[in-house]
Every structure is written in C-alpha cells, then in structure tokens.
Amino acid sequence: MIKELQINEQIREKEVRVIDSDGTQLGVISTKEALKIAEGKKLDLVVVSPNAEPPVCRIMNYGKYKYAQAKKEKESKKKQKVINVKEIRMTPNIEDHDLSVKAKNACKFLEDGDRVKVVVRFRGRELGHMDAGKEVLMQFAELTSEYSVIDKQPIVEGKNMTMFLAPKK
Predict the structure, then answer these.
(1) Measuring CA to CA, which of 43, 66, 107, 151 is 20 to 30 A from 1?
(2) Sequence-distant (≥ 6) Cβ neighbours of residue 74 within 8 angstroms
(3) pTM
(4) 3-state secondary structure at position 142
(5) Helix (H, G, I), strand (E, B) or coil at 154
(6) 120 in Cβ contact with 137 (< 8 Å)
(7) How confident is the model over 106-133, as pLDDT tens digits?
(8) How far apart are CA 81 and CA 77, in angstroms?
C-alpha cells in the first residue's frame, strides 16, 4: 500500500528542511517560504521524512510520484510466486496401482510448482502399525523422486503421518 504523505497546506510545522526538485538542499526554511518556492515552480511540497528534526520536505510533482510508486508496487507483485500446498491422503494398506495414480497426480502438482503434503491416515488397529505408514510414504517419495525432494521427513500427528514434498529446482 502506498502511504499518503503530507503535501502543501497539510504541513503544520513552522520550519522544514527543503530539498529542491533537482536534489539540491535549500536548507532549513519556513514552511510558508518553501510553499512559495514550490508554487513558483508549479510543483508540490511533500514531507518525505516526517520524523526528522526538522521534517524533511521535497519539491516534486506529487501526482507523478504517486503514479510511479503504484507502478513499482504493481511490478513487484507480478514477480511474486504464490506457492500452494496440495494434499494427498492415503491409508497404510493402499494398493500399488492406487499409490502410483496418487503419485502421478502429485507429480502434476509438483510440475506446477506447488508443494505436496502427503498424509497417511490411520484408523482402528492400523494405529499399531505405524511402520507400514512410513513405508508407504517412503515408497511414495521414491515414485515422485524425479520431480520432488523431501521437504519434511514423515512425522506423526495424532492419527496421521505427514510428509511434505517440494518441487525440484
């Protein structure tokens, strides 16, 4: 977000340090005088550093400045990459074909640049065979190894065993 700066008549301080539109310092002068100089150049007097003693103002075209800031912010948003986390759920006694289908889906997610959360859910007597779940997760990681890297090793959270896969660079 572009924060609003104090301009022209909004400036309440008696004295301000003024920087001209070309970057030269005009020194500490009264706000009225600085406004007259800015008006003479048909530009705005903008407070760029309100916390300084005295506040620092710059003579510039405020509309042009705001437009440039908005454009810069929009450009930086374009460069951001949103990474989603896709989840794949299984049971510890999953069949080989079902596992390969889920691995194929995970590969699609990884190719798109998303992280994959692989969850093995244990129910009832399956809770006594946590090692079977870990084997399934390791087999899954092996099937997707050409597209992924294990980001977080398998950990048990309640009745689930979770592992995260990240796309290979």
Answers:
(1) 43
(2) none
(3) 0.54
(4) helix
(5) strand
(6) yes
(7) 999 989 888 999 999 999 898 888 899 9
(8) 9
